[in-house]
Each structure stands twice: as C-alpha cells, then as structure tokens.
Amino acid sequence: MKNLLCDALTLTQDARDQGRLALSPEHVHQINQRFDACCAQAIKFHEGLPPLARPMKTRKRGRPRRRTGHNMARRMQAHKNAILLFLDNLNVPFTNNEAERDLRMTKVRQKVSGSFRTETGAENYCVLRTVAETARKQGWDILEAFSTSPTRLIHDLDTSASKPA
Question: Which of 35, 46, 48, 97 could form a disulfide with 70 if both were Cys (CB 3.0 to 4.6 A apart)?
Fold first, then answer.
C-alpha cells in the first residue's frame, strides 16, 4: 500500500509539473485496481489469522476483536474515494499537513494562555488567523491584507480562484 500511494503521489506531482488538470483515466483506473487488490489482500490475510484472545473477565457478547491492521484495511476499503480524492482533483493535497499547521497556532495560543477569555475574543482571533493564513497562501502582503476591506479580499480570492493554475 505504501508503494502504491507513493506511486500515485509521483503521478499527480508529474501531472501538476506538466500543467495538466487531471491524471489520465488509465492511470486512475490502474491505481484504483491496485488499491482494491491491496485492501483485499490485507483483509484476506487478517481473516486467515486466528481470532484474538478475549480477556477472561469480559462477556462473550458482541463481535470478536480485530487486529489494528485488519481495522485499517477495512477503513481504507470503506473510505477509498476520500483517500484517493487527490487523483481525481489535482488541487486536493496528498496529505492534510497544511490544515494541521493552520490549526497549530490556535492550539498553542490556547495552551499558553489557558483559553480565550470570551467567545467573541476567540472568534476575533480565528478571523485574524484566517486572513493572515489566506494572505500567506495567496502570496499577498499580510499587513496589506489586514488593511484591505473584506469585500476587496473576497473579490481578489474569487479572481485568483477562477484563474487556471
């Protein structure tokens, strides 16, 4: 699975570098087939293993416990479309690291100060962080973005979103 996802990432990076808007349907189909085969192989492997032992003090009701790898393979099979979304839409990042980085400063702020004093203060902080991060991602001057009217910022975002990448 690791090799499959690395191959898919390489394909999408190459497509972006070449200025293409999408991967070829043949590549997407091939990755989908390999993904299905990996999930099926993992599930078959785990179902062939003996069941996990139950602790002595538990009741015998409910489904038997599954191994971590088995649960992961079943989740990957169930959420295939979300996992491979970056193949269909080259604007979708391969990882969610950028979103996690965006949230990190808010969590640091909460931990350092204990929390926000008021809900209004928290909302204002979130608005300011959103404007700053959007300006950074768009390559704008952050201080200029803070002094620009919100309608102008929205207009600039709309015009940059309609331009081809």
Answer: 46
Confidence band of 57 (pLDDT split at 50, 70, 90): low
Alpha carbons 109 and 111: distance in angstroms, whole number: 6
Query: Which pair of tokens denotes residue 42?
Result: 């993992």
Angle between helical axes of 97-113 and 119-138 (0-180°, round to 10): 140
Contacts of 93 (CB under 8 A, 6+ apart): 86
Q: What is the DSSP string of 124-140?
A: HHHHHHHHHHHHHHHT-
- Each domain of the chain, given as residue ranges in start order, spans 2-53+67-88, 97-162
According to DSSP, residue 49 is labeled S
Q: Check whether 115 has a pLDDT greater than 60.
A: yes
pTM greater than 0.70 (yes/no):
no
Which three-class secondary structure state does DSSP give residue 50? coil
Residue partners of 109: CB distance under 8 A and separation at least 6: 125
Cα–Cα distance list, 160 to 88, 146, 154, 155 (Å): 21, 18, 10, 9
